[in-house]
Amino acid sequence: MSSLTGETPTLTVRADPARRLGEFEVLYRSHVAAVTAFFARRSRDPQVVADLTADTFVEAIRSFGTSPPVRGSESAWLFAIARRVYAKHCERTTHRQDAARRHSGRQILGEDATEQLTDRIDAERSGRDLLEALAGLSELDREAVELVDLAGLTPKEAAAALGVSPSTLRVRLFRARAKLRKESRTDD
User: Fold this and answer.
1) 56 and 78 Cβ atoms separated by less than 8 Å
2) Residue 170: half-sphere exposure toward Cβ, Cα within 13 Å
3) d(CA 102, CA 96)
4) Are 31 and 74 spatial neighbours (Cβ–Cβ below 8 Å)?
5) Rounded to two decimals, what is the model's pTM?
């Protein structure tokens, strides 16, 4: 009947979710490796890496329909979500409030998936070494170096992910790198 009246809101509504799903699929495929690497630098457990990566994209798809990232800010948007997911994970682990739920709710990874994540974790060994070297820096300085130097975000994207201005991030990045260079010279 709507075609007789010239109205087509139903068709627009049906097409929009499919388009959004397609956009999210492209976002997922282009960023899943970087998000997995982010967690592989923080955990040596393939199951934890897989769970945190999945949790990040579940959170992303939940907010994608109502508040998707601005074009060009997708990496910063996803890393901000990943940081929140990781913070929640650390809190849960520290307090052990949901240990039973996590254990019983885990889907056991197949041999191929475990092997792939083990390879990813091994590939991020140098990233973990860098994070250990950053231990003397403030949390924001560590995250700035990681997002720019390891994850490949631009300083502007990293600033957005960390919730600081780009100029603040550049200053922190400069100071953190200078401190790392100084420490590496004293180690030699």
Assistant:
1) yes
2) 6
3) 10
4) yes
5) 0.61
Q: Which amino acid is at 116?
A: Q
- Which single residue is written with the structure tokens 């007789």? 4
**Residue 29, CA distances (Å) to 25, 26, 33, 47 in order:** 6, 5, 8, 20
Pull the structure tokens for residue 133.
Answer: 């070297």
Tens of each residue's pLDDT in the chain, 188 residues: 444 444 433 333 334 777 778 888 999 999 999 999 999 999 999 999 999 999 999 999 988 877 778 777 889 999 999 999 999 998 888 876 555 554 655 667 778 888 888 888 887 777 777 777 778 888 888 889 889 988 899 999 999 999 999 999 999 999 988 888 887 777 66
Q: What is the Cα–Cα distance from 46 to 118, expressed in whole angstroms?
A: 6
**Whole-angstrom distance, CA of residue 29 vs CA of residue 48:** 20
Looking at the domain that runs over 124-188, which CATH code has it been given? 1.10.10.10
Q: Which of 141, 151, 153, 152 is nearest to 177 (CA)?
A: 141
CB 155 within 8 A of CB 166: yes
Backbone phi and psi for residue 98, each to the nearest 5 degrees, phi listed first: -120, 30
Calpha distance 107→25 (Å, rounded): 22
Numbered ranges of CATH 1.10.10.10 in the chain: 124-188
CA distances from 132 to 37, 41, 136, 139 (A): 16, 10, 9, 12
